[in-house]
């Protein structure tokens, strides 16, 4: 069982209001946009934006993140072995299968196993598209291992050289 992607959750009244800023901040267009029950969802960069009336969004607010996994059944076995509680059993949704779990420490997470087409499009092809990361200005970011001058230093001192990892 492996984790393919983790999304931080953002809550909003309107996707149409939230997406322009997130598009500017991430430098990408939404990968996915869909309606699910009474809320709308959009995946953009590493954010999952959940929009709709506050009372409808509240139904999903208990989970701190959405984690896309390769094998939901293997994940459920791992969670149970670690004394996690499956709070919403495996259910089918528009992107594949999902479950909600409360870890033994109290953290609550939504786990999703995407349909193969989404994994191909958003994980495998998406990782190829990100082999040369771009800044918001469109310029290529430094290669991994390249040196760059960081604009900070100890106690406000001189710039330090760091390696991109």
Question: Superfamily at the CATH H level of the largest domain?
Answer: 2,3-Dihydroxybiphenyl 1,2-Dioxygenase, domain 1
Average of pLDDT: 82
The CA-CA distance between the termini, in Å, is 25 Å
Order of helices and strands: EHEEEHEHEEEHEE
Shape: globular
Number of strands: 10
Summed up, the helix count is 4
Q: What structural class is derived from the secondary structure elements? A: alpha+beta
As for the CATH topology of the largest domain, it is 2,3-Dihydroxybiphenyl 1,2-Dioxygenase, domain 1
CATH architecture of the largest domain: Roll
Strand order of the largest sheet: 2-3-4-1-5-8-7-6
Number of domains: 2
What level of helicity do the residues show?
A: 10-25%
Q: Approximately what portion of the residues adopt beta-strand conformation? A: 35-45%
Instruction: Characterize the biggest β-sheet.
Output: 8 strands, mixed
Explain what you see:
With 165 residues, this protein is α+β, with helices and mostly antiparallel strands. The chain has two domains: 3-131, 2,3-Dihydroxybiphenyl 1,2-Dioxygenase, domain 1 (Roll); 136-165, no CATH class. It is built from four helices and ten strands. It has helices at 15-26, 54-57, 72-81, 116-129, and strands at residues 3-12, 32-36, 39-44, 47-51, 65-69, 85-93, 96-102, 108-114, 147-150, 160-163. The strands form two sheets. Strands 2-3-4-1-5-8-7-6 form an eight-stranded mixed beta sheet. Strands 9-10 form a two-stranded antiparallel sheet. The longest helix is centred in the C-terminal third of the chain and has 14 residues, at 116-129. The protein is globular. The two termini are 25 Å apart. 15% of the residues are buried.
